[in-house]
Amino acid sequence: MLALLAAVFGCALILPVPDFPSTQSSWSEGSPDTWAGIDLSSIQSRGLNFICPMDRDVSSTSPGSCPRCGMKLVAGIPEEKEYLVEIATEPQKLEPGKRTRLVFHVEDPKMHAMVRDFEIVHEKLYHFFVVSQDLKFFKHIHPEIQSDGTFHLVVVFPNGGMYRVLSDFYPKNGSPQLVAGTLLVPGGDFDQPVVLAADEAPRQSENSDMELETEPRQPVAGSKTTISLRIKPNDGVELYLGAWAHMLAASSDLVDMIHSHPLRATDHGHEFKQLDFDVTFPHSGMFRIWIQTQRKGVVNTVAFNVPVSN
Predict the structure, then answer these.
(1) Residue 61, by phi and psi: left (phi above 0), alpha (psi -120 to 50) or beta?
(2) Domain boundary at 153, 185, 217, which?
(3) What pTM, to 2 d.p., does this model score?
(4) What is the pLDDT of residues 98-150, one digit of tens each?
(5) Which domain holds residue 284?
(6) How many CA atoms lie less than 13 Å away from 149 in the CB half-sphere?
């Protein structure tokens, strides 16, 4: 399929590509200042009128905010539809190692009109992820909206090959979106499969030590897995973009990409802070998981390779 993509798109075209579907999206986030100690099941019941647009299982009989993500509860969820993300590049012909400006806009699929109004999600209007075919390059960027309604950002693609991009945004009067696309940079081997070895060893990041554990120890496709991250020391750990952490999990073939945030945060004195994510992996295989946290003003990014069984 990658060879076909390379033949169809040539070496310089960038478009959202729907035939690499993102089969799961997750926005399970929250701030302990908001929801620590709250029994979520106590506010979830049948027939409740106010619902969180991100965490659909959170509902209430009265207006308020979601105890997980802080989003305003809304009276009914708008019809779900996948918005379009149209991307152009400057220059049009991509080159590895060179600065490339991405210019893109969001389009309503029914009205075929450019979307100009967005809700703020985790302190930003737009979250944009870039992951390389070999899973070695990872970027979490926040493009700025321009007066004409487009978003601009500059990226340097280190090598040729396929890059997956993930747009995370929330159109006003719409529903939260995760829209995946594909960018092709000439010079790479599009047919080269990526082979990842399991690697869940502790990591030392910019100014923190990180440890990862999963429950069950061997994650099973289609079943809930709790991923626990321990941040050491628990000194100066801060919210990063409105959450204790941001996680992106990608299958080794880059077909599935999962964006998630911790459901629980627990302090263990000065020794460490534990963040728990609940994730359901859609299929077996190896997943690379990037987790970003912040301590004393420094953003820490670590990556683990987690095997998932049938």
Answers:
(1) alpha
(2) 185
(3) 0.80
(4) 999 999 999 999 888 999 999 888 889 999 999 999 999 999 999 999 999 99
(5) 203-308
(6) 13
